[in-house]
Amino acid sequence: MSEQTMSRSIFRLALHWQILAALILGALAGVVIPDVVTSVDFVGDLFLKGLRMVIVPLITTSIICGVAGLGGGEGVGRLSGKTLLYYTMTSLLAIVTGLILVNLTQPGVGVDLGLADRPERLAASMDRFGDSPGAALIRLLLDLVPSNPFAAMAEGNMLQIIVFALLFGTFITRLPEAQRKPLESIFTSAFAVMMKLTHFILSFAPLGIFALVGRTVARTGIDVFAGLGIYALTVLLGLLIHACVTLPILLSVLGRLRPHIHAQAMSPALLTAFSTSSSSATLPLTLDCLENRAGVSNRVTSFVAPLGATVNMDGTALYECVAALFIAQAYGVELSILQQGLVVVTALLASIGAAGIPMAGLVMISVILTAVGLPLEGVGLILAVDRVLDMCRTTVNVWSDTCGAALIARSEGEKGLVSLRDQG
User: Fold this and answer.
1) Among 6-15, 22-31, 255-264, 325-334, where is mean pLDDT lowest?
2) Which residues have a Cβ under 8 Å from the Cβ of 396 and sit 6 or more positions away?
3) pLDDT (tens digit, 9 = 90+) per residue, 34-58?
4) End-to-end alpha-carbon separation of the chain, Å?
5) Cα–Cα distance for residue pair 326/331, rounded to 1 Å
6) What residues pair up with 420 in beta bridges, in sequence order?
7) Phi and psi at residue 285, to the nearest 5°
8) Is residue 396 scored above 90 in pLDDT?
9) Tens digit of pLDDT for each residue in 240-287?
10) pTM of the entire structure?
């Protein structure tokens, strides 16, 4: 019996390897047997429909559970405020970095992804914005607040759903314990159900991606993958700038810390994040490195690091912004800076909403594309280069978490940090 169990574990590939195999086989099938692939492309559409089905309830319950879990209390409240301020600031900086780079490199211009003409939903989404900056800003602010949360859920208006969930979770924390506990229990259970349902749907990702990639290659040829090179380099350059320029500047200027010494202290956690592509799997090592190598107190570490592993996703947010603009460019849609503000805001809010979600990148890009009005068909091809990018963006996510822990410890007056400048 043990030998059979061992045999099954050997031949059972991890999901990301199954997806990689599906990408390769789908591309080959699109070249060799295009008619057959075209006849079964409904499998890809079925997978996308399943993904759309879970987006709204998954994001809603995830955000409510995450915000409600912050709890209350003066000390916790102060620490929560600093932590969320840091997470918001660094995520926004990462997204803006990606936005600037994707506009400079234009990786999607001239790339034929086999997509249809500009979709109606995209045109309607863009028409909501006025021609003047003032009108566009007012429109964006009005779009953030739902007049009817249930209508927003039915229509899939992700910005309004996220804002409502953030507010709902915030005010759960302000209820008396007798009222708060049952609500937290209900939404925690609902989130657990949605996680299981999402796992179930994602288990069919290899079949769906095989069909999507096969259909695209059958229509456009194998050259479609050549256009992904500049896109991947744009993402990698953005991650490099954020990790090696933006975050070290914050450490040095705001915290009077030595970035290279902090990086050396956190190197075991960063290498583990790169190899596992999982912030959660790296968390035990992150906690150990912060306390025993970087000198951050257990009080700060035990709060900031676990929250960061599920909420703070700088690298992922940057990646999603570049991916969304890449797909828009492939459609031949030129978005103004004001129109791209919708992508920035959605990516920022979705980076919080992706807490604890398996394959967060896949879910987040679905959220952003849905909010802007772009179809999800481009997701299958973007995943062709996702594995390497996932390793890099996870490393950036963990690096940002550790920088945040050090900066918050510094703001709390801690003197035991190993990279303090005043220690020589």
Assistant:
1) 6-15
2) 94, 239, 242, 243, 314, 315, 318
3) 888 888 888 888 988 888 788 788 8
4) 61
5) 9
6) 257
7) -70, -35
8) yes
9) 999 999 999 999 999 889 999 999 999 998 988 887 777 776 887 888
10) 0.74
User: What are the extents of the domains in the chain?
Assistant: 15-423
Q: Which residue has the tokens 């744009």?
A: 234
- CATH number of this structure's domain 15-423: 1.10.3860
Contact 78, 303 (CB under 8 A): no
Query: Cβ atoms within 10 A of the Cβ of 421, count?
Result: 12
* Cβ atoms of residues 309 and 423 within 8 Å: no
Alpha helix ranges (H) inside 334-418? 337-353, 360-372, 379-382, 386-411
Burial (CB count <10 Å: 0-12, 13-18, 19+), residue 154? exposed
Q: Are 357 and 198 in contact (CB under 8 A)?
A: yes
Residue 424 neighbours by CB distance under 10 Å: 4
Q: 3-class DSSP state for residue 378?
A: coil
Instruction: Say whether 324 sits in a helix, a strand or coil.
Output: helix
pLDDT digits (tens, 9 = 90+) for 80-94: 788 888 988 999 999
Going by the DSSP 8-state scheme, the letter that residue 176 receives in this structure is: -
DSSP 129: S
Give whichever of 115-119, 252-256, 331-335 has the largest mean pLDDT.
252-256
Position 28, amino acid: L
- What pLDDT does 11 receive? 46
Contact 127, 383 (CB under 8 A): no
Contact partners, residue 184, CB within 8 Å, separation at least 6: 65, 68, 69, 172
Place of tokens 């399943």: 50
CB count in 10 Å sphere of residue 104: 10
The residue count for the chain: 424
Q: Report the mean per-residue pLDDT for the chain.
A: 79
